[in-house]
Design goal:
Blueprint lengths: L10 E20 L2 E14 L4 E4 L4 E7 L2 E12 L4 E13 L2 E11 L12 E9 L2 E9 L1
Antiparallel strand pairs: 1-2, 1-9, 2-3, 2-4, 3-5, 4-5, 5-6, 6-7, 7-8, 8-9
Length: 142
C-alpha cells in the first residue's frame, strides 16, 4: 500500500496546561500497587483556540507499580469567555533520561456552541511533573 493512501498524521497544538496538585490520600501496597489520590488545586491553559482556567474540582487517581504509574484524571476547565468544559484523560508516567515523563490521551465533554467541536477531538498529551504541579502540552490530529 502506498503512502498516498496512508498520509502521515500531523498534530495541532490544542493548548498548554499547568496545574497545581496536592496529594490528599494514599493507599499503600494494594494488589494493583500503591494508590495515590491528588486533588487539582487550580491552574491555567492557553492555546491558539482555547484559553482559560483549570478549576480546583478535579483529581488525579494514580496507581504506582514497579515499572511506572497509571493515571486517571478528570478536570473542569473554564474558557476565557466563561464556558465550562470537562476533560478526562488516562495515561502513564515513567522515568526517561532521569526525568518523569507523562503520556496521556483523553476526551472533552463540551456544551453545544462555540466549543462543541471539542466533543469530536481525541486529545494526546505529553507532560512534566514536579512535587506540586504538572504541565502538559495537548494536541489533536489535524
Amino acid at each position: 500500500m502506498s503512502d498516498e493512501h496512508n498520509p502521515q498524521p500531523a498534530l495541532e497544538l490544542l493548548f498548554t496546561m499547568s496545574a497545581q496538585t496536592k496529594l490528599t490520600r494514599s493507599v499503600r501496597e494494594t494488589q494493583l500497587g500503591d494508590r495515590m489520590i491528588y486533588d487539582i488545586v487550580g491552574g491555567s491553559f492557553e492555546g491558539p483556540h482555547l484559553t482559560g482556567t483549570v478549576h480546583g474540582s478535579g483529581g488525579d487517581w494514580v496507581t504506582r507499580t514497579a515499572t511506572g504509574s497509571r493515571m486517571n484524571v478528570r478536570l473542569l476547565l473554564e474558557t476565557h469567555d466563561g464556558v465550562s468544559l470537562l476533560l478526562q484523560y488516562t495515561g502513564r508516567a515513567f522515568q526517561a533520561d532521569g526525568k518523569v515523563r507523562l503520556e496521556v490521551a483523553g476526551n472533552f465533554d463540551a456544551p453545544q456552541g462555540p466549543y462543541g467541536w471539542l466533543n469530536d477531538v481525541q486529545a494526546f498529551g505529553q507532560g512534566d511533573v514536579a512535587e506540586d504541579w504538572v504541565r502538559y502540552r495537548f494536541y489533536r490530529f489535524k
